[in-house]
C-alpha cells in the first residue's frame, strides 16, 4: 500500500504573518498518525520560519522550485543543497506555471529533477496536458515525453523516492477538475510507462492528482486506485479546506 501524500502548493501567496497563521491552522487541526503524509510548499523566503513552526509535527516541508547548479554566479536562484539545508525534504519540478510562464523546457526540467535527487531531495515531477492537447488526443504523448525526457537524463533509478503529479493544465486554478475516471485513466498510463522501465518502481511510486482538487471532490478522486494523493493549490491556502482534503485521504487508508 502506498502512503497517500497531500501536498499544499502555496505558490506566490501570503505574507510572513499569513504563513504563520496558515501553518498554525493546519497544525492545530491535523490529527497525527493517520497514515497520510502531509506536505506544505511555502514561498522560499518563509521556509525557515515554516521549518521552525513545523519542527514538533510530522508535516513535511518542501519548496516550489530549485536551480540545477551548485553554488555560483546564478543571481536570484536557489540550489537543492540550500533547500536541504533549511529543512526541505521535497521540491516541485516542472510545475506547469514554471513551464509556461518561465519557459522551462524539457531539458531544464530534467536537470532540475536530477539536481534535486543529487541534493537528497524528493522531487515531485509535475506533468500534464493543455486543453488543446487534450482535444487533439495528444494527452498521452505529451505526458510520455515529459516523463521520458527525465528518465533519459536522470535514469529510472532516480525515481526511487520521487513523486509524479498529474496536473492537467486546463484544470489548474480554473475550477475545472478532471473527472475521477479521466484522472484515473491518465494515472494508469503513467504507472504503465514507469513499469515499462522498472516494474517495482511502478508499484511504489506515488502519483498525485492536481488541478482544482477541493474538499468536495477530493474523496471521489482519491478513491481511484492509481491516485495516491493530491497536489493542492487554491484550496491549500485555507486551513479548513486543506484539512478536509487530508481527511478525505485518511479514508483511503482505512
Ligand atoms: P489548483 O492548483 O489546486 O489551484 O488548481 C494546483 C497546482 O497548481 O499545483
Secondary structure layout plus pairing:
Elements: E1 5-9, H1 16-29, E2 37-41, H2 47-54, E3 60-63, H3 80-85, E4 90-93, H4 96-101, H5 106-118, E5 122-127, H6 131-135, H7 139-154, E6 163-166, H8 180-197, H9 199-204, E7 206-210, H10 218-222, E8 229-232, H11 239-253
Parallel strand pairs: 1-2, 1-8, 2-3, 3-4, 4-5, 5-6, 6-7, 7-8
Bound molecules: 2-phosphoglycolic acid.
2-phosphoglycolic acid binds at residues 9, 167, 172-173, 210-213, 231-235.
Give a verbal description of the structure.
The longest helix is centred in the C-terminal third of the chain and has 18 residues, at 180-197. The mean pLDDT is 97. The chain has helices spanning 16-29, 47-54, 80-85, 96-101, 106-118, 131-135, 139-154, 180-197, 199-204, 218-222, 239-253, and strands spanning 5-9, 37-41, 60-63, 90-93, 122-127, 163-166, 206-210, 229-232. Helix 1 runs parallel beside helix 2, helix 1 (16-29) packs parallel to helix 11 (239-253) and helix 7 packs parallel to helix 8 (180-197). The chain has a single domain, classed as Alpha-Beta Barrel (TIM Barrel). By secondary structure, the protein is of the alpha/beta class. The structure holds 2-phosphoglycolic acid (PGA). 2-phosphoglycolic acid (PGA) is lined by residues 9, 167, 172-173, 210-213, 231-235.
